[in-house]
Amino acid sequence: MHLERIQSALREAGIDVWLFYDHHGRDPLAYRILGMEPGAHVTRRWFYVVPASGEPQKLVHRIETMRLDSLPGSRSEYSTWQELETGLAAMLSGAATIAMQYSPRNSIPAVGLVDAGTVEMVRSLGKEVVSSADLVSQFEAVLTDAQIDSHFAAQKKVDAVLEATWKEMGSRVRGSGTNEFAMVEFISDGFRREGLVWEHGPNVSCGANAADSHYEPESGNSRPILDGDFMLIDLWAKLPDPEAVYYDITWTGVVGREPTEREWSIFNTVRSARDAAISRVQQAFAARQPIRGCDADDAAREVIRAAGYGEWFTHRTGHNIGIDIHGAGAHLDNLETHDVRLILPNTCFSVEPGIYFPGEFGVRSEVNMMTWAGRAEVTGRIQTDLVRI
After folding, report:
1. Which of 342, 349, 223, 246 is CA-nearest to residue 288?
2. With contact defined as beta carbons under 8 Å apart, do 10 and 52 qualify?
3. Does 175 share its domain with 124?
4. Does residue 217 contact residue 239 with C-beta atoms inside 8 Å?
5. Do 121 and 161 have their domain in common?
6. Are 115 and 31 in a shared domain?
7. What CATH number should be reported for the domain holding residue 87?
8. Phi, psi of 375 (to 5 degrees)
9. Please, which contacts does 197-203 make with residues 24 or more away whose CB atoms are closer than 8 Å?
10. Which element (helix H / strand E) includes 158?
11. Distance between CA atoms of 298 and 273, rounded to whole angstroms?
12. What is the full per-residue pLDDT of the chain (389 aa) written as tens digits?
């Protein structure tokens, strides 16, 4: 647990207390931020109060008194609900603003982990409950130098596998033939040779399947890849270190022909939207001005709406990337959620606008960005034209 860092962050944010709470393992963020062992058998509620200054305090049930023993601070115990509420009131005495894993109107569901009744109880003590969302980002999304290096190492390997995949796809189409799932297996074999690990996927989408942004081919439903097809490949992987950071990209192309005028127009719109979001982030970091995830989403979405395709851009512009493919920092989102979390220095995220026409084809162009104080950059290759396969 990084007590000094947590208290410094609270003072900087002007928040009196960060109140951590769990019951039956409902808040994995608390366990990670506090450095506790995940997966513990938690059958009774516990509370852990970290003040902006001073000693932390614990409140645990008498049959699970050991639950917070790994953490610093004094301990109180309860058995009855009345003792719980009295003990919590005592621990919060003198504090006015209380940060919790709470999101107003549940605008950021990944942070809204505390149940409404517990928030009501804290408010009934005369406290103002504020969201811990930006605090969580500081401890969950900000990367170490070693983690940043791991992302760039994965980037080189994944980019090489993608390049080999395009070549192999063309060779197979002009030879004995291939299908989506066969190319997924080719990518997976490439990842294994490069010493990478990944979650489900990757994804190779042919023709109309590219219009399904969460399509995943399987051996039994895989579509043949033929001359004239439109292709989308989405792939992600990282080094086999639990603290390593993912690299996650999407490219599109056409098989054995030149793009149609419509395909080129849609790709150009998506590319322009992607570049608008990239530019918006880069300008903010260069000027050392704050930027929220929703602001970057707006920059991309405005381009697609202006081109008349707003209804076909059906997902957020990007997501935070960390040791999990979808990390706990700010997402580039003002569609699915209103993500007002700040994009912090030393964080990584995707920029991946898309336009999808069900039954026809879809275009998505995904890059990753890394930020530092005063600058932000795309971490890998940037697609500027549809690939000719």
Report:
1. 342
2. yes
3. no
4. no
5. no
6. yes
7. 3.40.350.10
8. -160, 160
9. 197/237, 197/238, 197/239, 197/240, 198/235, 198/236, 198/237, 198/238, 199/236, 199/325, 201/234, 201/235, 201/236, 202/233, 202/234, 202/235, 202/236, 203/232, 203/233, 203/234, 203/235
10. helix 145-173
11. 10
12. 789 999 999 999 999 999 999 999 999 999 999 999 887 889 999 999 999 999 999 999 999 999 999 999 999 999 999 999 999 999 999 999 999 999 999 999 999 999 999 999 999 999 999 999 999 999 999 999 999 999 999 999 999 999 999 999 999 999 999 999 999 999 999 999 999 999 888 999 999 999 998 899 998 889 999 999 999 999 999 999 999 999 999 999 999 999 999 999 999 999 999 999 999 999 999 999 999 999 999 999 999 999 999 999 999 999 999 999 999 999 999 999 999 999 999 999 999 999 999 999 999 999 999 999 999 999 999 999 999 99
Q: For the chain, how many residues are written?
A: 389
Q: CA torsion sign, 161 to 167 to 170 to 171?
A: negative
User: CA-to-CA distance for 59 and 80, rounded, in angstroms?
Assistant: 12
- Asked whether the bond before 202 is cis by omega within 30 degrees of 0, the reply is yes
3-state DSSP assignment of residue 331: coil
Q: Are residues 132 and 173 in the same domain?
A: no
pTM to 2 decimal places: 0.92
User: The domain containing residue 297 runs over which residues?
Assistant: 145-388
Among 125, 140, 155, which residue terminates a domain?
A: 140
Q: How many domains does the chain have?
A: 2
Q: Which two tokens stand for residue 312?
A: 């076909």
Residues near 186 by beta carbon (within 8 Å), at least 6 away in sequence: 165, 168
